[in-house]
């Protein structure tokens, strides 16, 4: 099931025939999207977001540090340190971001 979210935001500045000059540039816009996607992370220590963009400035993938769709995020270790490195979050963190972006773009 596909869902479409549309937010219509109207800011009445003044009645002017000129275009706005204070709009976000593309890099600022994409960084804001990455920042917003990072807010989905359940990691108590760090929130990481990613936004993949093609040459036409179209977003083709968004990801954050969390478990891939369909995986229980309660199975991910959230600690920064442990006797066994596999009991920390670090072996899984960046891999999850890459997987999220990959599945968003290619599947």
UniProtKB/TrEMBL annotation:
Gene Ontology MF terms: dCMP deaminase activity
PROSITE patterns: CYT_DCMP_DEAMINASES_2 (PS51747)
Signal peptide limits: 1-17
Domain CMP/dCMP-type deaminase: 25-107
Record-linked SUPFAM superfamilies: Cytidine deaminase-like
Keywords: Hydrolase, Nucleotide biosynthesis, Signal
Enzyme Commission number, as recorded: 3.5.4.12
Protein name as catalogued: dCMP deaminase
Naturally occurring in which organism (per UniProt): Oryzias sinensis
């Amino acid at each position: 099931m596909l869902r479409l979210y549309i937010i219509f935001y109207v800011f009445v500045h003044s009645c002017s025939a000129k275009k706005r000059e204070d709009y976000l540039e593309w890099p600022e816009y994409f960084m804001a999207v990455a920042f917003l996607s990072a807010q989905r992370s359940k990691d108590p220590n760090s929130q990481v977001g990613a936004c993949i963009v093609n040459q036409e400035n179209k977003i083709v993938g968004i990801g954050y540090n969390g478990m891939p769709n369909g995986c229980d995020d309660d199975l991910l270790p959230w600690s920064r340190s442990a006797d066994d490195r596999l009991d920390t979050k670090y072996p899984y963190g960046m891999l999850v971001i890459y997987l999220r972006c990959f599945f968003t773009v290619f599947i």
